[in-house]
Amino acid sequence: MSPAGWRWPPPLSDWKCHDPIFAAGSHIRSPRHVTLTFSEALEPAFSGALLMDSDGRNFSGAPVKVDGSVMTLTPDRLAPGLYHVSWHAVGHDTHRTEGEISFIVVK
User: Fold this and answer.
1) Sign of dihedral through CA atoms 50, 51, 56, 59?
2) CB of 7 closer than 8 Å to CB of 37
3) Taking a C-beta distance cutoff of 8 angstroms, is the pair 73, 49 a contact?
4) Where are the beta strands (DSSP E) in 1-107?
5) pLDDT confidence of residue 96
6) Half-sphere exposure of 62 (CA within 13 A, CB side)
7) Alpha carbon separation from 57 to 2, 29, 84, 89 (Å, rounded)
8) Are 73 and 60 in contact (CB under 8 A)?
9) Which fold, 6-105?
10) Is 92:43 a contact under the CB 8 Å cutoff?
11) Each residue's pLDDT tens digit, 2-21
């Protein structure tokens, strides 16, 4: 795992996925960034994500950045535990999709 960040391509119904760096349920160190990579450009005004712990507390940190086909969350340092990323994305074709992925932060 790169300490600089964690990347994961979400499974989209009719969009192509990129090569995953980590699978759902991965055990990783606290990431500086959580990056979701989509196969097409997103509409920033209609796309976003939340990073929450198992108690439902929001750890998303700075506002989610959407740049082309990449959505990036920049959380503060995460303590060991289970986290969930819940995302929604709208492409230029106005197709909306959403999903969730979980990962575990270890020391």
Assistant:
1) negative
2) yes
3) yes
4) 6-8, 27-28, 34-37, 48-53, 62-67, 70-74, 81-90, 96-105
5) 85
6) 10
7) 25, 19, 10, 22
8) yes
9) Immunoglobulin-like (2.60.40)
10) yes
11) 444 555 554 444 443 343 45
